[in-house]
Specification:
about 260 residues; about 65% helix
Amino acid sequence: MAIDVDRVEAGYIALVSPPHSSRDWFNSVPLPESELRGLLISLGVNARDVLDAIAFANEAFERGLSDRVRAFRDMRDRALRGELAEHELEMLRSELVSRSSQIDKVSLIGTLRLSGQSASSVETLCSLLQTTQEHDAVIAALSLLADWHCHAFEDQAPRFMLGADWDASRDVQAWALLHAARYLQSGGSDEFFDFLLRAATDKTQSADMRQKARRAIIGIADPPILTRGSSQTELDREFDSIVKAARQVIANRRNGQAQDPR
């Protein structure tokens, strides 16, 4: 074959030979398009032939990607009906933690949600949270762990609650605080609540994030003071008692008690 270009997830693989090039050449490691284009032209391959071969490779790749997107969309539809087989779930979990995946991770997490909680799915979400810096994916993964109310949430959430280095907009941090409050409303450990309290009082955090953490704690306690349209000053003054009430709510949920802590 005189010139052959294939697009893979990591870049492009090419094979060229005379008379279309000055010598036989191929690359075993995928290259970016611009780099490959320059190398092929330097080997004497006609520039138009290079562009045509790359365009053909792109079209083939997109067709394959479209087929893959449709396959995962079909999985979502069948998850709604409870029809996913375990091997399909395993394929979905592998796709979710793949660094080179072209499939939307939030959509994949949504399919995991529909398929129901399992130890393997929890482990996959934890692996994703250890590796990805995609804001929407992190928020969706934390939300699902919180909704499943599994202890893994307490292991994963704290570093986001204090703000990851890459979370410049602090939107992940804000959502992590919100999910922490939802999780604790159904029970949780005293240690995890202490971490939320730290986020509310740590002066190294921005005033906005400290306030969001305080609001999260107020949401857990749901104190009667809120019904009076209290000012922020009043809420700040009552914060110690609100913390105490929140701790009681969490303990009651943890112990399966139903009485109103107030």
